[in-house]
Amino acid sequence: MKFRKVLAGAACASLALSLAACSSDDPNASGAGSGDVESGTVRMWVMEGSLTEESQKFLAEEFADANPGSELKIEVQQWDGIVSKLQTSLASKNESPDLVEIGNTQTTTFTTVGAFADVTDMKDELGGDSLIPSFVDASTVDEKIYAYPFYAGARAVYYRTDLFEQAGIAVPTTTEKFLDAVVTLQEKNPEANPDFSGMYLAAVDPHGVESYLFPQGFEYAKQDGDEWVGQTSTPDSIEALTSLQNLFQNGTKYALDSQAGQKTFERYFNEGKTGVLIGTGNIGTKIDQALWDEGKVGVFAIPSDEPGEPGATFAGGSNIGLAANSQNPELARKALETVFGEPFQKQLAGEGWVPGNTDYADEVAGAFGEIAGDVITKSKLTPNSPEWGVAFGSTQLNEFFTRIAKGEDVETVAKSFDEQLSAALNK
Known about the structure:
The protein is built from 19 helices and 13 strands. The chain is about 40% helix and about 15% strand. It has 2 domains: about 10-155 and about 315-365, Periplasmic binding protein-like II (D-Maltodextrin-Binding Protein, domain 2, 3-Layer(aba) Sandwich), CATH 3.40.190.10; about 155-315 and about 390-425, D-Maltodextrin-Binding Protein, domain 2 (3-Layer(aba) Sandwich). The strands form 4 sheets. The protein has a 6-stranded mixed beta sheet with strand order 2-1-3-12-6-13. It has helices spanning about 10-20, 55-65, 80-90, 105-110, 125, 135-140, 160-165, 175-190, 205-215, 235-250, 260, 265-270, 290-295, 330-340, 340-350, 365-375, 390, 395-405, 410-425, and strands at about 40-45, 70-75, 100-105, 140, 145, 150-155, 155-160, 220-225, 225-230, 275-280, 295-300, 315-320, 355. By secondary structure, the chain is α+β, with helices and mostly antiparallel strands. Helix 2 (about 55-65) packs antiparallel against helix 15 (about 340-350) and helix 8 (about 175-190) runs parallel beside helix 10 (about 235-250).
């Protein structure tokens, strides 16, 4: 493996150097078969908000039943400061956890420096081609897989069926018709609500914005040999950004909503102030039950340019990797088998997540579950570059989309952002 100093400061160099030995030909370094599996404890780090206490208990009990005398110890970590904590812990043979949940946009940052063991040989056993494709791609380096999809938050459209009917709007089947539907709904405002917005979409919600842009062919960057080249100023991306600007100006009143407002954006839907949301499966549980009971809520996949075909939306979520410095690599592999076993995959789906194995996506409760599998299979991620997780957080993306929302010239903004992308991704 080619090690790269992708994390900021001396800690990056320390991580890469400490893990260099794990890329050797020693079969135990990659968790390869080493005989009988002894009993012991597997430490698994999961992020706050990922697994409920019920799911943590369920997983631990499933593992214990399958591996008598062994324990799966689940340790909840905070998102704030997790990159620095992982830098330190994964580089230590004494402190490293065995299994680690890591956000999909941060995955490449760690797989490219040898933080995780090669688990390519487990793909078929854990789900094969049914594993979320975009997440597997983000975990693949030099044709070797270093992590697998833990869960995803597929994004689709929630809409007020009664408002669509009153406005004479059909469920849109293409991206162009989607924009037309939102703009028309805002213009007609069927229930004459003050400050009614056809759709909720804010510049400070990059993943929501990406889910509108990606189906239209928008790209941040592509690789040309060893170089990343910004793509936001290509014809397809400019067309998508122009459509976005049209939506910001004519289809939503929330383009410049605050981050605090965006965190509870479903309330605008519940209050009748908007008729359309882009959201993950768990958003459905936050929509007033009365609206569901009255048949006033529908769900459809964000369309593509091909009529009736789901678009390539952004899917948030996490991967799970086996640490290269795991104290119990063979037992940790057994834990991965438990994570991807049918009982726990269904448990994840029951909590609103699309599980890593999309064969169980239809177990997601409600109308969202009926389309979750198709949506997540078509999903797309941000550039699979280790520098992305370091250089491009919400601040940079919020600024980019806010400039579009404010009506600045799309081509000028895009060209400037392409320069920023190329410089940051090619360090």
